[in-house]
Design goal:
- The chain is an all-alpha fold and 242 residues long.
- The chain has one domain (6-220).
- Helices cover 68% and strands 0% of the residues.
- The protein contains 11 helices and no strands.
- It has helices spanning 15-22, 26-39, 49-60, 68-93, 108-121, 124-128, 135-145, 150-175, 179-183, 185-196, 198-228.
- Helix 4 (68-93) crosses helix 7 (135-145).
- The radius of gyration is 26 Å and the shape is globular.
Length: 242
């Protein structure tokens, strides 16, 4: 892989640079980064989707000399354990973990954005949040702060970890077999980012459709109620006789 993707961010955050720089320790480094992004608040800026995609590509090109199935398992485990850590931090620290002033690494708008996402999608947010940068970091802690049921959280977290960590890695491995993909890494990473938000787009369309159907149902109920009321007939004829 010779194509540079520095246009997507600083060189030290370039997934390709990370893997090539770590050499034989590339897989361990990727696992650590995925764990940190999913469980530590300071890891929100780390590359997630793009790193998983490049990792899959590195496996099929031989840069990472580990079976693809094992890579996927390790990444799913790291993503899941990261979520467990984030949940534990939120559970132990409580709301105070978000009650802090802005800094270079902590922004109130990131918390507010995640809160709105959580409020809108509920339990599904644990799965969908995997595909949204920044949200996937903060939402794990927020679930702990909100005392989300532990068993339910772990179930949704595992499902999300499989779909995200294994899914994006397999996507990179599958597309990495084509020379066009190898020669256009930067364009592929942009495509991965766009694909990662598709679940959110589908949820938005679904929610809009449900609101529309709900509004139509309410209008029909109002009309039905109006037609059921007795109609008063007003006799305009003059009743006084002279």
């Amino acid at each position: 892989m010779q194509t540079s993707v520095q246009a997507l961010g600083p060189e030290w955050l370039d997934p390709q640079y990370i893997i090539e720089a770590l050499g034989p320790w590339a897989l361990a480094g990727v696992c650590l980064i995925i764990f940190a992004e999913c469980g530590l608040l300071v890891g929100f800026f780390l590359p997630g989707d793009s790193l998983l995609f490049i990792t899959g590509l590195a496996v099929v090109t031989g840069l990472i000399d580990t079976p693809l199935w094992l890579v996927c398992v390790l990444l799913v485990v790291c993503a899941f354990l990261g979520n467990v850590l984030g949940y534990w931090i939120g559970w132990k620290a409580g709301p105070a973990v978000f009650d802090r002033p802005n800094s270079r690494l902590f922004k109130r708008e990131n918390v507010e954005r995640t809160q709105k996402f959580f409020d809108k999608y509920g339990n599904r947010a644990i799965v969908l949040g995997r595909f949204v940068p920044i949200v996937r970091t903060f939402i794990t802690v927020m679930a702990g702060v909100g005392r989300m049921d532990t068993r339910r959280y772990m179930t949704f977290s595992l499902v999300g970890g499989v779909l995200w960590a294994a899914g994006v890695t397999l996507l990179g491995a599958g597309l990495g077999q084509f020379s066009f993909v190898k020669d256009n890494i930067e364009a592929m990473l942009i495509l991965v980012v766009l694909l990662s938000i598709l679940p959110i787009v589908f949820e938005m369309i679904k929610a809009r459709r449900e609101r529309k159907l709900g509004a139509q149902g309410l209008a029909e109920d109002v009309l039905d109620g109006a037609t059921d009321e007795p109609t008063q007939v007003i006799d305009t004829r003059r009743t006084d006789r002279r």
